[in-house]
Here is the input.
Amino acid sequence: MTPRERYEQLELQALSPFATKSVQTKGRKSPTKKCDLRTEFQKDRDRITHSKAFRRLMHKTQVFISPEGDHYRTRLTHTLEVAQIARTIARALRLNEDLTEAIALGHDLGHTPFGHTGEDALNLLLPGGFRHNEQSARVVEYLENDGVGLNLTFEVLDGILNHRTGCAPSTPEGMIVQVSDKIAYMTHDVDDAIRAKILSSDDLPAFVFELGATPSERINFLVNNFIEHSENKAEVGLSPNVAKIMRQLKSFLHTNVYGNQLIHQRERKKISTMIQLLFEYYVAHMDMLPIELQNRTDASQAVADYIAGMTDRFAMKRFSEIFMPAAWEV
Here is the structure.
């Protein structure tokens, strides 16, 4: 018996009846030889971790545009925080930790440069709109690995595609990641906003302190609530009253952090203009795209794929090269 087979047997014996077992995966679009060491979900986790799109997350903004401090979240640190929260919940509920981790590590691979500002800009430019969860699925299906994709299992791809609010993941592990994403970004966006002096603790509404006095306490409270409310259930999630507080917190952040800062609004306008100019330029100059994108029949989608894959600094570099005059050499 191989190490993989022993681990698959362990899953069948130890995991919850509601857990998604590796041997029960619906498989991949292109069947591949099984690994002697790793389960199918472990293979997916490793494929995502070693992808170029995953490495680029370290230079993509989470919320605050071009922050000067070293301690603000990036898209990569956010992803790792989501994975840590999701693994903790999955382990406590005896659900599949490897599947949960793979979904968490891949859920934001399609995010644009400059956070949701970049996403909003591309959403206005791309016919049919742009949604980062759908782009994350495009990355792992069609764009990574020189256009071949990562050939992930159905369950991991489903969790990545359906991690946004309003979507319905087909596995409890996907549901865990959907909520863990919110736990991570809502608690840490409050922390970053206070660090940036956009908010102070005195500005926080009373319902925030029902979750705890510090980011750590809030995460601990939310994780415990999720586990207590989901024990021995097929449908997992936060309790209704805590889910209501999370909706209130999201509304508060949108009003007081994401869209109500004069400096942030000015930067948003600059970034939207930059994304629009880059988009229009590349649609008119398809020959300037990477070779694997040049022959696409849908020029707008090819350009959106290229821009969405950029890091913040690469987008600014390309903009400068195209639209800013170069210094004269004498």
